[in-house]
Amino acid sequence: MRVLLAVIRYVRRLILTVAGAALVVFVAIEVSIPRGFRAVALPIGGENSPRGQAIIEQFHLDEPVVVRWVHWLLDAATGEFGRSIDRGGIPVGELIAPRLPISLQFVIISVLGAALLGIPLGLLAALWDRRPPGMALNAIFGLSQSIPVFITPPFLIWVFAIQLRWLPAASWVRFSDSISGNLRSAALPAIALIFAEVGIVARIIRADALQIFRTDYVTAAVSKGLSPTYIAFRHVLRPASLGLLNIVALNIGSVLSGVVLIEFIFAIGGMGQLILQASLSRDLYLLLASTTYVVFIYVTLNAIVDELMGVLDPRIRTPN
């Protein structure tokens, strides 16, 4: 029953968020362009031609924005997200399908990699607080948070691709074609993404762990002769993770933006290039489908975080 209620909450949140984001895209296109989407879809002076009339009918251009938004929502509910204006009327689903797994791979790598690296480093920084190793780790965390995600890739390319020639600078091999080739081509983008996120993960864990180390039950564990490392990973990690999960949920938008930038820098044919090109050309239906992809990832990861928080602490379990 609890699983069913969680699924219902997730679907409700997904529908409402997709509807709201799509409305924002519709209104933004109408406001940012003279004559609105009509100027993009229709050739100049071609409104009275048979082709122009067909376009007007196909995209409901004679109807208000809200009505066109409702038409798109009803079509999207059946899996029809429209056709690309800038790419000769190709269904946007065909454009997104081969690119979506690439971007999803980088999102997963970024979130999991930052957690797997940042959590133990944050605990170590708390254990070594005010000692040289802890101060060195804090300096690394500060660099991670202060350096923008688009600064790290050129340095990584120069070191590992140009100087050492260990990894390719800009290429992509699908996981289905070659596992080793995929890992090599994903290595530099993954390092850049993880480095951008690991600092905030580690600092949140460190701050929460330092507070928990001062609690009575940790003091009791120390008095029993348990090692600090055992106490950190056995007694401190679980309560310290609650604050981290909140930050991860809030930071998902930043992760998605970082993936878009990284794909563009490394010339990887994921959703990043597609979203950028769709934005520049005002390709409305491609933008709507891309927005739905971003919303889907955001809502899905937030739903997972909500459930994990309920598992870690049943007192804050999401209400029905």
What features would you describe in this structure?
The chain is an all-alpha fold and 320 residues long. It folds into two domains: 2-96, no CATH class; 100-269, Orthogonal Bundle (MetI-like fold). Helices cover 75% and strands 0% of the residues. The protein has 13 helices and no strands. It has helices spanning 2-32, 37-41, 50-59, 65-77, 92-96, 100-127, 132-146, 152-163, 179-213, 216-223, 228-265, 271-281, 284-312. The longest helix has 38 residues, at 228-265.
CATH fold call of the largest domain: MetI-like fold
Helix content: over 70%
Tell the overall outline.
Answer: globular
Radius of gyration: 24 Å
In DSSP terms, counting alpha (H) and pi (I) runs of 4 or more, how many helices?
A: 13
Largest sheet, in brief, is:
none
Strand portion: under 5%
Give the CATH level 1 class of the largest domain: Mainly Alpha
Distance between the termini: 11 Å
